Amino acid sequence: MTLEAAALAALEKSLTAAATQVGKRLWTRHLSAAGRRERVSADVIKQLMAYDFSGRFRLTMILPALPAGISLAAVRKKLEGPVFQGLTHELVAARLMSMPQSVVSNVCENMQLATHLEFPDSDPELTMAFGKVLFDEIDRVVQELVAKLDTLHLKGLAELRQTAALTLLNAGSDNIKRHNSYLKQSTSLQQAAELAGWVTTYRAQLRFAHGHIVPPDFERKQKIPIDSLFVSPKVSPRNNERTTSVTDVWSLFHEIDRTVLLGDPGGGKSTASNAMAWHAADDKDGPIPFMVILRTVVDLKQSILGHIESGLSAYYQCTPPPGAVEGLLLSGRAIVFFDGLDELIDTSKRRAVTERVELFCTKYPLTRVIVTSRRVGYEEAAMDRSVFEVFELAEFSDENVETYVQNWFVHVDGAAEGRARQLAESFVQESQAVPDLRRNPLMLALMCIIYRGQHWIPRNRPEMYEHCAKLLFEKWDSSREIYVKLKASAHVDGAIKQLAYWMFTTPEAAQGVVESELVREAVAYLEPAFSSLPEAEQAARQFIEFCRGRGWVLTDVGTTASGESLFAFTHRTFMEYFAAFELVRRHNGPENIARTVLPHIAAAEWEIVAQLAVQISDRHFRDGAARLLSTVLTNKRYRSAASRRNIHAFAMRCLGFAHVPVPLARQIAAAFIETMLQPQDTEIIPQQYLLIPELHEPVEQEIFTILSAAITAGDSRRRDTAIEVALHLPTIMTRLHERDTDAAFDAFDRWTELRRRIFEAHRETILANGNATVWFAAWRHGFISLSDLVTEGPFAQTYPLNIFFAEPKYRYIQGGWIEFGPFLPERLLQLGGGTVEEFPMTIAEIDWLNSFIDGLGDPPWISVPRIRVHPFEKRGTLRTEELTTDRGWLLLRLMLITVEAMTYPATASDSRDYYQVLEELGDCRLNCRKLPEWLADAFDQLQPERLELVKAWLTKQVNFVADAED
Prior knowledge:
Organism: Kibdelosporangium aridum
Pfam families: NACHT
Protein name: NACHT domain-containing protein
Distance between the termini: 52 Å
Domain NACHT: 258-410
Structural class: mainly alpha
Radius of gyration: 31 Å
InterPro entries: NACHT_NTPase, P-loop_NTPase
């Protein structure tokens, strides 16, 4: 590629990224097929995101203005950076939203000023003039795009400009003006040099602060380089309808815009944030990362900007120049990591912080933002679903486990390579018996520590925590500095649990507690064991000092305004274990424990503490788990739909580890499914419901019974909801991205088998409701044949092919498939069937469909008024060599149907890109003009009768799509 071509590619890439980012901001789950208004708006957004900018720019207009001394290579590099992507984002938003010309002028001036600042050593007038030329050329292309959308989607674009989903973009007008004011104040070379120097220093400080992992250890605190130990689990979007290139933490980093990352306790969310921040700090041309630990955002009088600035001075020891941080936020040069939303235990406080983060995003629309949280409880204070895209961090796969263990024994244990390999192999083999433990990164690290010293592997989480605590207390006993060690050691276990319970249940302790408060709480517990208060105080101080020295127990998390150190448990899961143990100790019997945790379960709080309380109760009381869960399940106090949903889901999750009587397990399963059949104000979020083996059959049978009764009930809404729940069972009960573990595979297979049993038992009733999506699902799941779908389905008596073009979306549960009519030619005429594993149609089915269309008679063949195309991330050219085959004739007809009904604008183009060909065909038909020579030659190879039909379609003598009145 020549340098000129590379520069053009960079310009096209920057504008594509900006248009995609704007489109993603607009794309909300409210823009669904539920109504024509939303669908029209959605079509505009999809077109915006799919627009191909290739060949639109004229380098001949740009090059003459390039100042001497600035190379084209340097320009290309800047165009690929966050500054110019932010500027193009501003321009696309301003033109698309039809903002006043004064705002567009501000964008123009922003680009001129930014160009000057990006090339500070060049002549200011010349660089400003070059920025103007760049702006004019980009603006011309953007206006062409908006004009096309305006012409062919006039109503959709008008509605989009009015919809509430544009709140974020409307705030862009204010941001553009503030960005303009900042740039005007920052044009001196001295200011630019000062900012550049600070950024370089800060990047180095951040890399030092976040470039390591401190693994839990009972003997010493050590920092391991993050690239030596970190292993990224799989990352996938919660909404599986969207195609994405995200597979792990590193690919997620490039997708961050308005992003949420969910994971399990100890699953590596904070480590992933640190890894991405460390990675960003190393790229001098990339975004500048800022870390915000949400548990420390407690002063509601301080802005998030102020919080970031104070943290830069206090923690990173890197005070920024005045206005520097806000300037980076305004220009899109920053990326902000908001870590630990779940660590705000109180739901109301979590919601308050959520709102502050959302307002921050509105104020700084060009800044990329990611928020991390635990899965369970997130929905109670979720980020705005119309703005934030949610991704999920999977548990470790077997391959992840092997890699991490090998790294651990080399870098943490310090074993020689051969010895490390031997230890890792034996550990991996022996730990296969506890797959649920080793899939969690924190549990895996603790298992490695225990295995290193004792060549023994715990069998469950309470046993793991208990053994770790025992090792801690052994270190306490062996310490030579402990005051009155024989007396104190007997109370250390209770003291640390008391401390954990106090910190867990005290909202003010979320951001950390000062040492004096820790000592006070320890004294309150230890005083009865000593003859005098001074003795108890001295023992308490030594106990706190000891805990501070154990990197896995207490850690320094900052300072107060007066400079006093703040401390918190290094790993929240340990605090939760100790707190759960203390909770059980304080309350007499499982019933009292249940009544204590119930308000928090109903509010989706205390998930881990409550689960551990169930397990610990079962060890301390007869039938402890059953008594606790029975009390939780039968309470009459919390009756709201949200509360019951949270309570029943919690009880269902507990069946993955709690050995309870079969009648109770059935009761829990029935309550859980009944909750799903009630009117939902939120979507059903897939969870991981793994059952202990002895409960598989009774729980599955109970769910079968409940759903069967609902499907045959007279209540149509309950029936239809039950049908959708039944068809979704495997995805509701098993998180999609965790099928790579044996337990998840087994669970998914069992729920799939239950779905089959339900369908076979109620086939006639399920299909009788005439829901096209249900019919389509029945075919996709293998319950009916393609012939049944087409010849007996809901469109069989009118336009049978409609089933492939009517958007298959469920009524009560989010989800569905893309339309197969456009999908088949997109895949097979663009990428070929062999490029995708398990292609969703067999060759026999494709051949049958071809014969069926041959027998339909003269068109029109469908009556669906509009079709949306869902472009693949991997794109290709039209495979013209396939068109002359019988199978190719089927695909060509489906392709032409798509062109006639699609909502994309027709565009003249000689490109062989598949999606450009769709537009080209649409334009040729719309404007009665000739095909490009290469495409006409390809069609000329068709059999005569087939070519005649294509020509008749191109000249509008034949329509494949019926008029609305037909």
